[in-house]
Structure formats: structure tokens, C-alpha cells
Amino acid sequence: MTTEPQSVPGAEPQPVLGPLTTAAIFLVLTVRPGGEETAREVLGDLRALERSFGFGTPEAALSCVAGVGSAAWDRLFDHPRPAGLHPFRPLAGPRHSAVATPGDLLLHIRATRFDLCFGLAAELMRRLRDAVTVEDEVPGFKYLDARDLLGFVDGTENPVGAAARRAVLIGAEDPGHAGGSYVIVQKYLHDLDAWNALPAETQERIIGRTKATNLELEEPASHVELNTITGPDGEEQQILRDNMPFGSPGGGEFGTYFIGYARTPDVIEQMLRNMFLGTADASHDRILDFSTAVTGTLFFVPSDDFLDDLPALPEAGEREQ
Question: Where does the Dyp-type peroxidase N-terminal domain start and stop, copy by copy (predicted)?
Fold first, then answer.
């Protein structure tokens, strides 16, 4: 049987298990030399800022999850590294590549109202402006009945309740980081003209689901099948996706912002290897013929307890790159 993560007292997670929302802003930032203290101050104030903007409209479910990249950890905290934190591992497949791009901080801001996301993001960036460089900024939105811009329902297999906690939250296996999680983000750009030129039946075989009814199909080389990972005991290894469509009709850029939370990055990394490097049944995920990954970064999401009581800032000499 799959090992259950044992709880650790006082390990309150960030709101990674919050419900899917209709709006989001994704900010990927790098911390400039000398900006470490400012970044730490904002991380420590994150929940208070979230409460300030969301207090009057609790039904909007405003939240912000912060992640820290591998290159930034030793610059920000005099504390042992999370066991699974490492730079995003790029993949070069026979036809497509998963690229690695810079990122020291991830701010995943979400709510049912975009104005609240905007207000919180603006305040965070006002505080961080001189301390960071914006590597990527993507506003996401719910499209129709929770579909991506390819026309298929996204996030169908997300775990809920206890299953979500087991899939996402670190327990006693890394007690110094209990209540934390890992998150991988990738920005995918779609060639919608080429995709929409395909017959619906071909699209369905590529995805592995029916378009109208969202029923899973038995397609061994489909996107769904390549992203189904099982452990040694045959049980499916789950992650929590909070993907959002994004686009610029005037600029002609359309895509999906992939964001996957997990207790260990291993599961998501295996999914990506299946997609880009292939398996015995497929040379690659055929969705990649129409969807190009232009970013890729791995972050660790500390618990709220960690953010409330941050470890000391490393000595200046220890922060030098």
C-alpha cells in the first residue's frame, strides 16, 4: 500500500488545497543581489496582505501561495534545504523540449474576482519592485465550463479531501519542512489554428477524453494515459493541478499555464519524461505538436508556520552566488 504521510504538529500549510477559482495571476520573479531582506519581509507579511485585500469579500476566496526556487533557498534562509528541492530539469526529446527558465519566487494569486488578484499582486510588486526582476507574469481565467483553450475540460482527476492532502503535503518524511509542498510551473503556447483544423475525433484520441462529455477513452498513447503514473503497488500517484488558460486575442498568443502541486517533484517529473521523452507506446505526447513549453521552473512551497517564523538570513558571504 502507498505510504501515508504522517502529520507533524504545527505544520500548517499554505492555501495550496484551496478550491479552483475563476481568476489567477502567476508571477515568477528572481531576487536581485541585495534584495534578500525585502523578499523575506514580503514572504513574512504574505498572509496579512492576503487578509487585508480579501477581508471584505470572503466569498471570493482570495489567496496567495508563495514558492521558493533552488537558487534562492540558500540566499534567503539559514536552514537545511528541502529534500526534493533542485533546479528544474530540462528535457530534450526526439521532437520537443521542456526548457528550464529562471525563477527564485513564485506568487500564485487566485480568487473568484480578478480585481482582487490584481490588487494583491500590485501591492506585492510595490513592495518587491526594487528587489526583484519579473521573469514572467501571466493572468489566468476560467474559460467556459472549466475548459482549456483546446476545448477540453481540465483538472478532472484532481484529488480532493484526504486524498489531496496525501498527494500534496509533506509529512514526517522531511519533518523540517512538514506542511510544505513542491510545485512545478510551465507556460505552454498553443497553435490554435493547427489544432482547430483537426477533426474532433483526432483531438479526442490525442487528449484521451471525449470533448463534449469529458469521458475518458482507452488510448494508450494519449495525453491522459501518459500523465497517469502508478507506484510499485499499482496505485495511481496523484498531483493537484490548478491550470489556467491565458491569452491575448489581439496579440495572437494563447496557452495554458500548467501548475502542479505534489508532495514530491518525482511524480510530475515522471509525467514530463513520458510526455517529452516518450514511452513504449508513444514517442512523445502528441499534444506537444500543438503546444510548446516556453518556461519551466520548480519551487518549494514552505508551510505557513515557516513563513510566520522565518529562519535567519544567511551571512552575506554565504549568499554570494
Answer: 14-142
